Amino acid sequence: MAIGTIERAAHLCSRIRTRLFTLLLSSQFKEFGAGARISPPFRFYGLNQMSLGEDVMINRDCWIQTIPGGGRENDAKLVIGSHAGIGMGAHISAAKLVLIEEYVFLARNVHIADHAHAFENIDVPIMEQGIDRIAPVSIGRSTWLGQNVVVLPGVTIGRHCVIGANSVVNSSIPDYSVAVGAPARVAKQYNQTTGRWELASRGTAA
Fold this sequence. Notes:
Blueprint: H1 3-26, E1 31-32, E2 37-38, E3 42-45, E4 50-52, E5 57-58, E6 62-66, E7 78-80, E8 85-86, E9 91-94, E10 98-100, E11 105-106, E12 111-113, E13 116-117, E14 131-132, E15 137-139, E16 144-145, E17 150-151, E18 156-157, E19 162-163, E20 168-169, E21 177-180, E22 185-191, E23 196-199
Parallel strand pairs: 1-4, 2-5, 3-6, 4-7, 5-8, 6-9, 7-10, 8-11, 9-12, 10-15, 11-16, 12-17, 15-18, 16-19, 17-20, 19-21
Antiparallel strand pairs: 13-14, 21-22, 22-23
């Protein structure tokens, strides 16, 4: 059998598997938009507090969860807008609200959480102290997060932003910005007067 034929057959099997897996899970979500797809393997908890828009794609090996407490239990704590793409290996954890707007795209291994692990009590193992510093996270429409980006609690990333690979975003990023580094700092911004992307002032904080 030709290599091309094998590749096409493997691709078809993968698509069928994704469709069946999606069908199995779709009714468990709070809202599930037409054309949304989830590719296995997929680790999850609390699907009933997640809302997916139309044509959302969650790629394989993702771990996505909502955590009890931190918000009203009847509300969606994780909202992924239409046409968003969640890259392989992403981890998203929401205790209050993580909002990912339309056309956002995450590269591989992105981590987003609206909470942190408590650690202050030295008499209790950190793994048993639960979570704290709960604060909503929002990622604006048409934004791209590069590979291995970490987004911390309380962060708002604006519309049409680019966050460079391996960046750690611990403070908010304005619309139409390119931010890089750990912690992430704005490197470029779109100037609506000149219609150009321009270098930010050296050392500008995100």
